[in-house]
Amino acid sequence: MHLDADEIHLPPASYSSLVSAIAAADALGFNAIEASEFTFIPTREAPDHDNPDYQQTLRTYYPFRPTSPHCVRAYKKQDGPMEIAWSGGHRVRFRGPVRLSPVRFRMKHYLFLSAEHAARKYGGRRFRSEEVNGLGWHGWRPRLRPGDIQLPNTTQVRTTTTDDDLDEANPWLAHWLERYAS
């Protein structure tokens, strides 16, 4: 399973654990699992979650799916080589067919915890030219300037009370900050 430090992976709501959900997909003959991305960001009304309890305090999100499949983050070990770098870690390829489970898992992506955190995380970051220009990776991140960071109002995003009520309907095709990166 591939994951980034700002992600928390969850099984589908009908399973009690990732292990049991992965075992069920494997038993049905699937060798890859996609995760629905739920991007958590702070709002103007609650702008700062840069603390150890961010998972309890940051409950505003939007579903994100610019392409389909978008995040194939779990896959069965294969006999031959496996690659994820070609897709920036979003999809896997290997010899033989990728048999993608039709049941998507859930991934909470904590993009940033406050405007200040976003500025620290993306503002001074350097990106390789061939990744940005040649491969089209990193999207809005190389263009974002700390002064551009604006937070949404609570009415512009969704609020969850538990992980079981995350709603993937009508996913966004672009991240919130992309509209401000010039």
Outline of the structure:
The protein has 182 residues and is of the alpha+beta class. The protein has one domain (7-179). It has four helices and eight strands; from the N terminus they run E-H-E-H-E-E-E-E-E-H-H-E.
Keywords:
two-stranded antiparallel sheet, 182 residues, 6-stranded mixed sheet, alpha+beta, single chain
Assembly classification:
single chain
Q: How many domains, in number, for the residues? A: 1
What is the typical, i.e. mean, pLDDT?
A: 89
The overall strand count is 8
| Rg, Å, rounded | 17 Å
Shape: globular
Q: How do the SSEs run, as a string of H and E?
A: EHEHEEEEEHHE
* Low-confidence region ranges: none
Provide structural commentary.
This protein is of the alpha+beta class. It has one domain (7-179). It is 16% helix and 19% strand. The chain is built from 4 helices and 8 strands. Strands 1, 2, 3, 4, 7 and 8 form a 6-stranded mixed β-sheet that branches. It has a two-stranded antiparallel ribbon with strand order 5-6. The longest helix is centred in the first third of the chain and has 10 residues, at 18-27. The radius of gyration is 17 Å and the shape is globular. The mean pLDDT is 89.
